[in-house]
Write a structure and sequence with these properties.
- By secondary structure, the chain is α+β, with helices and mostly antiparallel strands.
- Strands 1-2-3-4-6-5 form a six-stranded antiparallel beta sheet. The chain has a three-stranded antiparallel beta sheet with strand order 7-9-12.
- The chain is globular.
- One of its GO terms (biological process) is regulation of mRNA processing.
- It comes from Xylona heveae (strain CBS 132557 / TC161).
- This is non-specific serine/threonine protein kinase.
Length: 432
Amino acid sequence: MRRKPLKKLAIIIMFPSKSLKWSVRRFFLSSPFPVPIVPVNLLPATEPVEEECAPHYSPKHFYPMHLYEVLNNRYQIAAKLGWGTSSTVWLARDLHQWRWLPGRYVAVKVNANNYASREAAETELRLTEHITKANPHHVGRLFVRTLLDSFDLHGPCGTHVCMVFDPLREPLWMLKRRFQGRVLPADVLRPVSKLVIEGLNYLHSQCRIIHTDLKSDNILMALRDRAVLNAVAQDEIDSPLPQKRLGDRTIYLSRNEFGLPITEIGRPVITDFGLAVHGDNLPSYYHLIQPDSYRAPEVILACGWSYSVDIWNLGVLIWDMLQGSGPFDVEESRMRTFSNESHLAHIIALLGPPPLDMLNQGKESFHYFDNEGNFKFPELIPKSQGLENLLSCIEGDERKMFLNFISRMLQWRPADRSNAEELLSDSWLQGI
């Protein structure tokens, strides 16, 4: 009579059920942190903070996150890292890490759930999945953000698309504030630029993706030592940042400066593919893209654009990082708001008049140029002429090499610009 239970136990040990396997495994996985009970300074309820400052903000579109909440039965929220017009980003502890190993942290991007944001999030998710799988062995993949996991999060007002990434440190615009004059010195900018171009080469040649929105917000620096993430999480437990508490949610402040020295900065990583497109779907695109002062001329003139818009965009960004302002930035004393006319005027001042064949190709050229290619708003053209007269921060041979490097990207005709792979062998990038 006693042998039957023993036989049944042996069967269970030899062939455990899925639920028993998970229960045993769960015993050895990390446990969630308990919610700490510490005093918290409260922010005024009437003053907008963080995502509440986004244009067209609506609380029903943003998930009402709470610290130490566990998402998807796996990711426990530890701190807020940042926010955007259609998402918030959170540091989370991965509870699927074995409990005897150091804590493993990830960044969870929680997208807004209104139609436009959800559609963009789903597009970004599909593109990021494609980028992650395209060619794992290509060197440029190291400089592009790839996906660890994704899931849907059900909130009180709808479903939110969530994407899980390796945590990164700070964007380029924040990095340059660490240096004198709030610009990147040439010896720092050179390796950063080279690695960004490696990433762009991966996007273009392996993924066949056009980013369309390269700016200092969308290039983040990686961490060399991920142990700092545990310190960030512990700081939030011991000394939580002020919070704004409302009836249905809490608005947290972001911990986006980890206080690490420059020597702890890792590689640059291209992020945010919400506005990216497949480069081979059409011969060219025509819809409006890019930050205002970074916009390529073929976008304004409606000539049709493709991969080379990213090259133009990158050239303006690199100049901005070195000089402290973009080459086509409009002076506030002349024009307080961006316009296509003023932007084209600045391009003419620095690159000369556009080629007539390009104007003939543009569907919108007639708004800005006559049939002979004359600009209709000559009074807007700045007096300073040529890129060489605008560059003031470097001298000598390096100045000549940098101007040659930038001129390979800032060309009126898209076909006249070097591609990412060609740029990698440039003398200025190579430091020779």
